[in-house]
Amino acid sequence: WLQSFSSRQKGQPLSQGQSAYIEQNTQIIGQSLSINGYTVTVESAIAEERVACIRLRLEGPGITDIYSGSFRPRLLANGEGYESLFYEKGRTCYDQSPYGSGRWIFSPDGNGISILIQLDQSADPDAPSFEAGVPYVLHLTDLHVSGFGKSESLLAEGVWDFEIVFDHLNTDSAELIHSPITITHENISLCMTSMKLRTMGIDVKFEPGPYDYLGRNCFDDSWVVLRDGTRVSIYPQFYQPGGSAGLSLDCPIDLKEVDYVELRDGTKIYRQ
């Protein structure tokens, strides 16, 4: 599923290495829980040290008539924050979790809906990485949906909790910058000192400047280009003006296939 989904998102076939990477690194989970007639199944997961993608399937009455939805986190009793989505087993959803969430993608799939949750640790370089063999809890609450011509409403109230254990994590990475490189966009310049490419994201370090969050614009419309010409889109996921940025990729890559990274201003950074 992830192979075909990624291909549709990109509008082109995946490379041979990408397809092999997904096939070799995806683990089947197959846990299901039904509440009020709505069944959530955690079908599979694929993870590296900083990014984890978890695929769900949602089935229930009228589910094919919706076009968007979300499991809305519940407000804490003290009104200061929300219950955690993902945390280590042994803690609770009321504890602050260091594991953030990135994109949620809903996609019609036969008589149900496939949901891809991307958990991304790039927001904080000091945040803990995911670990293989450690039990985590995926904590989903209160399904809200929007239908065609209808406003958002609560479809099913309840708690869907699943135990997730990553049986392995891909740890491949490659440092692309060995001396500072300056990139520009309009009147913004960033001096990058590090670009660490991983299989599902990029960690960037740069010298602090006066541009606040506008500096993230330098990373829009950028690509990882593979040796066969396949282009993988880069998205600025997080940006800290103090000197770091986290970029996500629209699908996993095999680092051995990487030719170069092409940034918005045309700068090409080759993998040596």
Written description of the protein model:
This protein has two helices and 18 strands. With 272 residues, the chain is mainly β. It is globular, with a radius of gyration of 20 Å.
Beta strands, count: 18
Rg value: 20 Å
Helicity, as a percent range? under 10%
Total count of helical runs of at least 4 residues? 2
- Give the termini distance in whole angstroms: 33 Å
Largest sheet: 9 strands, antiparallel
Order of helices and strands: HHEEEEEEEEEEEEEEEEEE
Q: Shape, please?
A: globular
Q: How confident overall, as mean pLDDT?
A: 89
Fraction in beta strands:
over 45%
Low-confidence stretches: none
Structural class: mainly beta
List its traits:
single chain; about 270 residues; mainly beta; nine-stranded antiparallel beta sheet; five-stranded antiparallel beta sheet
Write the topology of this structure:
Layout: H1 2-10, H2 16-25, E1 27-35, E2 38-47, E3 51-59, E4 66-71, E5 86-88, E6 104-109, E7 112-120, E8 135-147, E9 153-165, E10 173-175, E11 181-185, E12 188-198, E13 201-206, E14 222-226, E15 231-240, E16 244-249, E17 258-262, E18 268-270
Antiparallel strand pairs: 1-2, 2-3, 3-7, 4-8, 5-8, 6-7, 8-9, 10-12, 11-12, 12-13, 13-16, 14-15, 14-17, 15-16, 17-18
